[in-house]
Amino acid sequence: MVKKGIDLCQKHGATYKYIECYLNNIEEINRRLQTCERKISQITKVESEVAFKKCLAGSKRPLHGEYLIVDSGEPLEKYGKKVMDYIMDR
Question: Which keywords are on file for this protein (predicted)?
Answer without folding.
Answer: Coiled coil
